[in-house]
Amino acid sequence: MHTIKLAAPAKINLTLEVLDKRPDGYHNIKSIMQAVSLYDYLTISVKDAAQNTIKLSGTSSEIPYNEKNLVYKAAQIFLDKTGITGKEISFFIEKNIPVEAGLAGGSTDAAAAFSGLNKLFNKPLSNENIEDLCASIGSDLNFCLHGGRALCSGRGEHTEKLAATRCPVTLIKPLGFGISAKEAYSKFAQRGKKDLTDYTEKLLTEFNPDFLYNSLEAPLLEDYPALREIKTKLKGSMMSGSGPTFFILRNSCPVDFDKDKFLVIENLHFIGDGIKSV
User: Fold this and answer.
1) Do 149 and 183 share a structural domain?
2) What is the pLDDT of residues 157-191, one digit of tens each?
3) CATH number for the domain harbouring residue 247
4) How many domains are contained in the chain?
5) Could you list the residue range(s) of the whole structural domain that residue 130 is in?
6) Active site residue ranges
7) Alpha carbon of 250 to those of 7, 171, 263, 272: distances in Å?
8) What is the pLDDT of residues 226-257, one digit of tens each?
9) How far is 201 from 169, CA to CA, in rounded Å?
């Protein structure tokens, strides 16, 4: 049996500007994504078998351990692309990144699956092949693969590496619900008039917290009191991705939120890499 363990970091969106809707139903975006020091860990084991089998298990009761999981989909696509047969592939997912939180937890796990499998099977696919596979099943996987900080465009799959800086981060997530990207983008589309802010270009020029921005934040604030509570109480906070997680660029949270209603993760920081073996 061959085994590999990988660390898969979460991401936040320092900016997320939603642009025009695409023919495929997605929206074009302009976003600066940043990897942070909150990790899921994937242990991948491979052994010979009569036929290809994919098995998932893990520590979370909030994710499916079947074909609905992006890790399962990534493994199936990898096997189809490479033509590898007669293998049992097992994944154990140590889940630390909150689910449906705007932190790319599912995407980073799937990116880790692609990266880990390619290493276990002695790199049958090129880096370009892996990039293409990442783009085929999600918008954030390409960023998660490399991490650090990047300017992301298209639906998020086109990435341009940016210089990294060290910065503290604290995350605040309301408990009891998640928000899917589909819901967030639908609410954004229903608003009609769109913002033309160009905060991404401003942040590229100068790393200033005043330039943090998320087009999806305002539509969701209208419908979720818990999000409004964070935004009202916590000056300088910004929602990440499709929410409902917010972040501030501080080591700790200066506000005492009810622990029965909010999850606060402190003492995180920006990191300069993405998926890596541990």
Assistant:
1) no
2) 999 999 988 999 999 999 999 999 889 999 998 87
3) 3.30.70.890
4) 2
5) 2-163
6) 11, 140
7) 23, 9, 16, 18
8) 999 999 999 999 999 999 999 999 999 999 99
9) 22
